[in-house]
Amino acid sequence: MNGKKIEDLILRIFGTGAMALGFQCFLEPAHLVAGGVTGIGIMLNAFTSARFGFPTPLWLVNVALNFPLFLAALKMQGGRFVGRTIMTSLLFSLMLFLAQGVTFYTGDLTLSSVYGGVLVGIGLGLVLRCGATTGGVDLAAYLLQKFWSRPSLPKKIFIMDAVIILSGMIMFGGINGLYAILSVFISERCMKWVLEGGDVVRGAIVISHKAREIGEALNLRLEREVAAFSGKGTLGEPKKEILFCIFSQKEIQGAKSIIMNIDKNAILLVTDIREVLGEGVTIK
Prior knowledge:
Blueprint: H1 3-27, H2 36-51, H3 58-77, H4 79-98, H5 109-129, H6 137-145, H7 153-172, H8 174-196, E1 201-208, H9 211-222, E2 227-231, E3 240-247, H10 252-262, E4 267-273
Antiparallel strand pairs: 1-3, 1-4, 2-3
Helix pairs in contact: 1-4, 1-5, 2-3, 2-7, 3-4, 5-8, 6-7, 7-8, 9-10
């Protein structure tokens, strides 16, 4: 097993473990249905416990509902496509099984939605970073895409999750539903943070007739290397130099001041950059 495979396996273990803790310790005991197969499991567990007196474990629901999806995916796409998803889903079910009975729920829905959302989001981000998924709604939407191309795949996932969340709201009440939506929002943000990285830097594009002077000032005062490009004007306008440079979050205001003090008519475009590759690139 090479280093990449070991790294992917570690990410899956920690990712599915974090997700299992989020569901078992916070979301499930608080009856917060945050979509997906586990959301169905939370509702089914509450129903069988109240009506028949026995629980339906989340791990069992995850296996039972994913199994037919795996069979359909194997038939339609082959083993290579679905193999990684099967492994990750079974690992997630194992983590749910191991996390049974562990709970930090004290009756506070706010804490449950926040901590549950953080754990699920971080865990899902780690799983997605190694190119895997846990199956469930994502896999079901992908299979449906083969037969019904509209709406788009993201919209199918959104609709299916929305139906599950709405069902949970009907079953457990509007307050629980609102906290479940808060949990979904938090998990989405945490997942994005894990996938894109937390160290956001800023990329600045400057269009100015005084580009050379601006570049020298940025290099002198902020110690930033600046790349210069030549831009062609339209309607007979003279050529303009275009500068590009990256800054840390705390440097961007200083860079704006430097640029505007030299040329108040300069055009400045600022955007977030999530990843910077290359030796010798240091963002303070």
